[in-house]
């Protein structure tokens, strides 16, 4: 028998806090879907999680479905113990529907201002937060690092837990992440305790010159506010559909998830020292459980 790579063994009770599912055969895409991803149903997600030893999942709204939550609700029903972050139209959704979503396992709403390069619509952000304030939900935002500068004044007005996707989504073409506009503001937000971030999606900026330092600085700053996620099934996004072709089915990126886990374990060791087991347990188990 071969030896087990301890760097890829996850703590018991591990969470994957950012995954997507899509099944166009069962749940048609929104007419305005920005691209057409390949099928990635719940059964494939569950097989992926079994291969890594992940016990809990948080399903995140896929931009190709806009505010259609049918696929997520179906998955939550079948999972029985899952959590989800969805998209809503705050101007039309009723309190009754929000309560139904809450009972199904939804615990937040996602605002995507990066996939299409949308500006930060401050009024819409506050309006969305107001709709779910009574439920204490999370406000999850996918924004570019430089957009965080615009977002900062909204944080105290939102008054709810905020999650920033993919460790702030730095742009590797702009040089070291710690020197980019928005980085200092991002770190300051993490210090408040109200703002969390997901250690995920680093394959989107693999050539960031200071990726190791960028991540370990975040872990040192807010060890209780970082949660790990695979970002499965690794969508290519709009940029992987040249010419804006929304009809061609898009393959997923090839990502070595075990290697990413091993790198995250190394970052934990670099920050905490020793085996890094305490910090690893935080980002995979304790922090997501709290959030």
UniProtKB/TrEMBL annotation:
Domain Amidohydrolase-related, first and last residues per copy: 16-237
Pfam (any one): Amidohydro_2
InterPro entries linked: Amidohydro-rel, Aro_Compnd_Degr_Hydrolases, Metal_Hydrolase
Gene Ontology MF annotations: hydrolase activity
Protein name: Amidohydrolase-related domain-containing protein
């Amino acid at each position: 028998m071969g030896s087990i790579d301890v760097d890829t063994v996850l703590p018991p009770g591990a969470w994957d806090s950012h995954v997507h599912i899509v099944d166009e055969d069962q749940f048609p895409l929104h007419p305005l879907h920005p691209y057409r991803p390949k099928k990635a149903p719940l059964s494939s997600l569950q097989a992926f999680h079994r291969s890594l030893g992940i016990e809990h999942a948080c399903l995140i709204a896929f931009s190709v479905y806009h505010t259609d939550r049918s696929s997520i609700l179906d998955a939550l029903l079948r999972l029985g113990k899952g959590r989800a972050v969805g998209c809503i139209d705050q101007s039309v959704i009723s309190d009754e529907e929000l309560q139904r979503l809450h009972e199904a396992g939804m615990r937040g709403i996602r605002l995507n201002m990066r996939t299409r390069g949308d500006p930060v619509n401050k009024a819409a952000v506050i309006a969305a937060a107001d709709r779910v304030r009574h439920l204490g939900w999370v406000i999850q935002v996918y924004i570019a690092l430089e957009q965080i500068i615009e977002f900062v004044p909204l944080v105290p007005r939102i008054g709810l837990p905020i999650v920033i996707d993919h460790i702030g989504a730095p742009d590797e073409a702009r040089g070291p992440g710690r020197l980019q506009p928005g980085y200092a503001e991002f770190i300051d937000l993490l210090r408040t305790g109200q703002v969390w971030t997901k250690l995920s999606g680093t394959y989107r900026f693999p050539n960031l010159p200071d990726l190791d330092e960028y991540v370990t600085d975040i872990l040192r700053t807010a060890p209780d506010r970082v949660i790990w996620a695979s970002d499965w099934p690794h969508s290519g996004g709009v940029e992987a559909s040249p010419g804006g072709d929304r009809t061609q089915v898009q393959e997923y990126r090839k990502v070595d998830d075990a290697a990413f886990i091993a790198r995250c374990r190394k970052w934990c060791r670099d920050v905490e020292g020793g085996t890094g087991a305490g910090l690893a347990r935080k980002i995979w188990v304790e922090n997501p459980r709290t959030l």
